[in-house]
Amino acid sequence: MAGSALKRLMAEYKQMTLNPPEGIIAGPVNEENFFEWEALIMGPEGTCFEGGVFPARLTFPPDYPLGPPKMKFTCDLFHPNIYSDGRVCISILHAPGDDPMGYETSAERWSPVQSVEKILLSVVSMLAEPNDESAANVDAAKMWREERDKFEEIAEKHVKKSLGL
Amino acid sequence: MAEEFVFDPNKNYDDATMAQLQKMEKEIAENQKLISDRVSFDSLSEEYAKEDEIYRTKIQQDLKNRYKCVRKTRGDGNCFFRAFGFACLENLSNDKSQLQRFLEVAKQSKSELVSLGFPEFTIEDFHETFMDVLTKVENDCTLEELLETFNDQGLSDYIVVYLRLIVSGYLQKESDFYSSFLEGDRTMKEFCNQEVEPMGKESDHIHIIALTSSLGVPVRVEYLDRAGTSTCNHHDFPEDSTPVITLLYRPGHYDILYS
């Protein structure tokens, strides 16, 4: 069904170009391969990530949208729900049953009617409100909980780095 | 004693778990078609040990007397939807007046989903595949072709997704009534996002009531379980309807029955 996946990804790209959500840019890395996208995500206002522009990669499976893509930040980002290698770990990237973190039952899950846009909007909310109940980066979760100043300092460093400063 | 587990922070355990799950799914896939040919009840009782008398008695002395044969489906969490979908289209191919009514309902369903807030680009491919299969039936495709379509993983899954969307749409539209059946404090939208729309989520009574009501295709379910009766109990969805399809339920699984 790679043909169906391609059709859907092209429709999503068109949608993202015509109605881009605020603070998000995303599209295929090159027009030859629609299964590999790059996204730029602006750090949400009023948070310690404000002002940053964080690049990420999305990799889509051949049966997309039956299965979800994988997402990985390609910059330094110290956050409870991002592994140290950049992989993003939030509930919408997992179907129910595929549950590495034991997400709470009310968390939004992957299904074929989700979309790249929905994922990226969830990632923006995740930056604004880390979920330290299901941490991918335990050190970041601990620091976010116990030493918020130190956490924000690191975040600011990564914001500057993301801008090439 | 089992090998002692040493956590390796550089290893991706999620991927390892997923790989193992995928391997198991592949093994199941190789052993069972998505929708099988019609098989006899003897092949059904072969699945049970000689000692498993309750099941064997109910199959040999009850089901075998009341039904002719069975079509097995793959146990992948989508079996209710796939069994219903196939049985429904097989039935419509022999009933052209019902087919016209069904085509209208199916056509309408997309705009209903859009009006409920589903972005059109997320549902149109599934709707299109569903309508294409219905058109095949309208154009008198053979039973073999229908069976082929339902055993093509891609097409078959797209049909299942669309049936799931029909259930989601119906439950959200009728949420005033159906919300009272939900356990916990989930909203109907959350329930649909977590229990209806994702592939592989098993169906409960609420899914069956929603699908049969919204499509106007009543179903009888025969229950083959360990209950200490000599015959199977059955239930019709919606209640007091005249079923046009019969499914066989064994705990966690649905197959299709033929009389």
Question: What this model shows, in words?
Answer:
The complex is a heterodimer of chains A (165) and B (259). With 165 residues, chain A is an alpha+beta fold. Chain A has one domain (2-162): Ubiquitin Conjugating Enzyme (Roll). Chain A has four helices and four strands; from the N terminus they run αββββααα. In chain A, strands 1-2-3-4 form a four-stranded antiparallel β-sheet. Chain A is globular and about 50 Å long. In chain A, 42% of the residues are buried. With 259 residues, chain B is an alpha+beta fold. Chain B has a single domain, classed as Up-down Bundle (3 helical TM bundles of succinate and fumarate reductases), CATH 1.20.1300. Chain B is built from eleven helices and six strands. Chain B has helices spanning 13-31, 41-45, 53-66, 79-92, 96-115, 120-138, 143-151, 153-173, 175-178, 188-196, 205-215; strands at 35-39, 69-73, 219-223, 233-237, 245-250, 253-258. In chain B, a hairpin with a 2-residue loop joins strand 5 and strand 6 (253-258). Chain A binds chain B through residues 1, 4, 7-8, 11-12, 14-15, 63, 65-66, 89, 95-98, 100, 105-106, 108-115, and chain B through 13-14, 17-18, 21, 77, 118-119, 121-126, 129, 153-154, 157-158, 161, 165, 184, 186, 190, 193-195, 197-201.
